[in-house]
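Thread: assembly with ligand

MN 10:42: here's the input set. Chains plus the small molecule as SMILES. Want everything predicted jointly, not piecewise.
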Amino acid sequence: MNKTALITGASSGIGAELAREHAKKGGNLILVARRKELLETLKQELEQQYSVSVLAICKDLNQPDATHGLYEQTKDLNVEILINNAGFGLLGAFDQAEIDKIESMIHVNVMALTTLTRLFLPDMLRRNSGKILNIASTASFMPGPLQAVYFATKAYVRSLSWALSEEVRNSSVTVTTLCPGPTRTEFEEKSKMSGTALFEKAKSAQKVAQAGYNAMMKGKRNIVTDRGQHFLIKLLPFVPTKLSLSITRKLQETQPNKNK
Ligand SMILES: NC(=O)c1ccc[n+]([C@@H]2O[C@H](COP(=O)([O-])OP(=O)(O)OC[C@H]3O[C@@H](n4cnc5c(N)ncnc54)[C@H](OP(=O)(O)O)[C@@H]3O)[C@@H](O)[C@H]2O)c1
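BT 11:07: finished. Tokens for the full assembly:
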């Protein structure tokens, strides 16, 4: 297989592992993120280990024209797989969060993902071939006190992606949503969630990426990688909203090491 995959947020965590999964299968890659050195190191690793061709593009998806620029730069490279993975969260009360951070979270998690999907999807439909994998989260299934904007961005990603999976149903193009539970990556520290109960049993990024990649290749609509959370999500419609909101809040407040 030498299909080209474009992965945003490929410099670390789940994105870097998704790149490894694709390279293992012999696929070429376009890696996108801000940290050039990490992208170049991953490019070298994958080219040497798997004899694939990798293009590293340094891009800040928070910049207004980044997505259009990225599309112009890559539209002739026959992108068969688009993986919208770049994203970040931030723990804390909404009224105290920096407005800049809120705006850039919405820009990266929502706007960039939407625009890239809109730009690449018509080419895939014209060829009647292609796969899109959008990274949401188990956070997409409920509102998240103390991470209100992050949970809302992920609810948007899941809603958009599920709707598109139906819109393209009569073609050979597929749209898959990956909903990871807590996963051991830089996300935990960057979003100030280190030490919360949620991350006590975090999964490895490699396992999450492998499950997401396989689901995408099979053209599945959705994949939740955390079994425990998957079970709880299925129960959600039967739980009073007041209770689910307070449990979600508590999970994010708890410091597991506090009482040890
Ligand atoms: N870890 C978890 O527990 C978890 C759970 C559910 C969902 N997720 C989702 O999984 C995805 C990947 O996160 P991760 O856990 O792998 O965390 P991570 O290691 O922090 O990776 C985030 C990636 O996004 C990129 N990124 C962030 N802002 C960007 C920007 N402005 N422009 C371009 N790239 C940007 C980062 O690259 P640069 O910094 O180099 O730009 C990095 O490669 C995210 O969408 C996250 O919301 C994570």
